[in-house]
Amino acid sequence: MHNAIATVSLRGTLEEKLAAAAQAGFQSVEIFENDLIGSALRPQQVRRLMEDAGLSCSLYQPFRDFEGMPGDLRQRALDRAERKFDVMEALGTDRILVCSNCSPASLGDRQRIVDDFRDLGERAAKRGIRVGYEALAWGRHVNDHRDVWSIVKAVDHPAIGIILDSFHSLSRGIPSESIREIAGDKIVYVQLADAPLLDMDLLYWSRHFRNLPGQGGFDLARYVAEILRTGYDGPLSLEIFNDRFRSISTKLIAEDGHRSLEYVRDAALRVLGEPTAMPAPQAPLRAEFVEFTAGTNDVARLGDTLETLGFARTATHRTKKVTRWRQGEVNLVVNAEPRGFAQSYRIVHGTSICAIGVRVNDAQAVMDRAAALGIRAYRPEGRPGRMAMPALRGVGGSLVYLVEDAGAEALWAREFEPVENTEVSGDAGVRGIDHLAAVVHNDEFLSWQLYWRALFGLEGRDAQDVIDPAGLVHSQALQSPDGAFRLTLNASDARETLSSRFLAQGLGGGFQHVALTSEDMVATARALQARGAAMLDVPANYYDDLAARFGLADDVVAAMAEAHMLYDEDFEGNSYRQLYSRAFDKLFFFEFVERAAAYVGYGAANAGVRLAAQNRYRGATVGAE
Ligand SMILES: O=C(O)c1ccc(O)c(O)c1
Ligand SMILES: [Mg+2]
Fold first, then answer.
1. Distance 228 CA to ligand 1 centre (A)
2. Domains identified in the chain, total number
3. Does this complex have an ipTM over 0.85?
4. Disulfide: which of 212, 295, 453, 529 matches 260 by Cβ 3.0-4.6 Å?
5. Is residue 226 over pLDDT 60?
């Protein structure tokens, strides 16, 4: 059992694809026919390249429109197969994929199909080749792996078996339990792909939208578990047709691909209750802190902003220029160190969120799982000094610190000296952190989903397309199963959306806002107003529409308008109330939310209104207009 990847999954020349696959740790590749045909390298040269890189060739594919051809076309198909066997010999592979026939000329007659495969099996056996038959979801007569299995059984030839491809099975909703019928030694090869759940023509969906296990909506853990249950121990291979993958970093996709296979194998073994090579994913218990990096000139200004939002400076770091701000259970850390990670991050991104801390039960187990998934730990370069807690590389170069639950309070006490006589003039009613929102490059949007899902077992919730006045923004929410830790990822191809401006101004992806919980949004709004917090204006039209949509009483709507509050309700009447602060240097802002326990969204219906409001402040600075 090893990790493989089809060359079609990666961008670049065949040489680049092979180099990236080897570098990322794959043991073998599927040579996709078009990649060979378009290459200046002869098959023998490709073989040498693979050997030099430590790769084997586990499959040649696809061989199209073979079975059930009428008249002369039948012999032509068999002759064509012999030519491909020659190529395979030169490439050094003994497995070929025959995908089910899509030709309008093909006949669906079962006996003919069985006879054709028996003929092909005889020819393949003479050359030491195994043929795998794959049901394309849009095959003309055969489009279901259960049909393929019944044909393979009828052919009953040692050189003929089945190839399973998760996309074709799961896009048609074929139950994974059906794999139990298949004999493990008749599975010639396994291809894996995930995909977003779209209501779309199967061929178009498959050719453009496949993605890596852990990036889409299929239950691949169960699919792979059923395959392992048959005793199959051949390669698990990625076959990803994705428009974006064709244009973005080969290295990124190869590395993410390898991670996705480690992740899905681990998840499948867990489904089976079998031992695995890495610790189980641990969902964060909560976001423990958010760390801001601020230059000396910005520290006071940021502090003033935090005070208007109801935070109090409660402690200073014992040895560093770092302060701890609190409100309710929320910890914000402001790092003004003149050297080190926070300072480096500040040089690149400006005063911004440079790290988050997540509370977990067992930090070492998270670090071990990260290592098994190829996620890099952070270790300060050149300054091997003590680190208060372990950290991992996260979005856009920011860090994810791990705070162990059992020692969390002791850690704070050890690192920070309480500030005496803090003037606490009441807060804004904030209790905790509802969610963190990150903006990432569109090219890395799927990469970050995989990171959080594979490492922490977060679950993907509804994807939303949000309308910014300057273009479309894709948003994907991820959360721990119990909702105690929530994250949204946002990305946009349009050049001037708020997300894209954040990326341009901050030179890369990162956390853009922190959503804080309140149990009484009206009181929070009043407290914020009293403290002089700069809040986002919401247009009157919004409130007219709100009254109409939810049938709210005039005085309720008037109170919301007065508070600049956004409101949403799900179909069961569970409510969500939101307020937004103005952005600090246009780089980050705060949201305040009051979430009914059963409300699972993020006020997507309000996002367009919020983005339009933020768009109106373009060019202006807080307090200047
Ligand atoms: O889209 C296709 O034609 C195609 C070809 C080969 C495959 O293995 C596959 O899954 C799809
Ligand atoms: Mg396939």
1. 23
2. 3
3. yes
4. 212
5. yes
* Range from 103-112, 152-161, 169-178, 611-620 carrying the lowest mean pLDDT: 611-620
Q: How far is the CA of 99 from the centre of ligand 1 (A)?
A: 7
409 in a labelled binding site:
no
- What is the SS3 assignment for 263-320? HHHHHHHHHHCCCCCCCCCCCCCEEEEEEEECCHHHHHHHHHHHHHCCCEEEEEECCC
Q: How does the average pLDDT of the chain come out, rounded?
A: 95
Question: Stretch 589-595: mean pLDDT, rounded?
Answer: 97
Q: Is the pLDDT of residue 623 over 50?
A: no
pTM, whole model, 2 decimals? Answer: 0.95
Residues with CB under 6 A from ligand 1: 61-62, 97, 99, 134, 136, 165, 191, 206-207, 239
CATH code, 221: 3.20.20.150
- Structural domain span for residue 332: 286-418
Closest Cα to atom 6 of ligand 1: 62
Atom number, ligand 1, closest to the C-alpha of residue 165: 10
Closest CA to ligand 1's atom 7: 62
Cα dist. 43→4, 31, 86, 198, 440 in Å?
Answer: 19, 10, 10, 38, 40
**Residue 415 marked as a ligand binder:** no
Measured in angstroms, how far is the CA atom of residue 515 from the centroid of ligand 2? 42
Per residue, the 3-state secondary structure of 164-193, as one string, reads EEHHHHHHCCCCHHHHHHCCHHHEEEEEEC
Q: For atom 5 of ligand 1, which residue has the closest CA? A: 62
Q: How would residue 9 be classed by pLDDT, with cut points 50, 70 and 90?
A: very high
- What pLDDT, on the 0 to 100 scale, is given for residue 172? 98
For residue 421, pLDDT beyond 90: no
Let me know whether 548 and 506 are in one domain: yes
Integer-rounded Cα Rg, in Å, for the chain is 28
State in Å: Cα 375 to ligand 2 middle. 28
Residue whose CA lies nearest to ligand 1 atom number 1 = 207
Mean pLDDT, range 594-603, rounded to an integer: 95
Whole-angstrom Cα distance, residue 296 to residue 322?
11
Predicted local confidence at residue 395, as pLDDT: 76
Compute CA distances 596 → 188, 199, 434, 520, 578, whole Å: 51, 31, 12, 11, 12
CATH number for 534: 3.10.180.10
Of the ligands numbered here, which is closest to the C-alpha atom of 164?
2
pLDDT for 625 equals 33
Extract the tokens encoding 443.
Answer: 């090219």
Q: For residue 102, which atom of ligand 1 is closest to its CA?
A: 3
191 marked ligand binding residue: yes
Residues 471 and 603 in one domain: yes
Is 145 assigned a ligand-binding role in the annotation? no
pLDDT at position 498 is 87
pLDDT of residue 379: 87
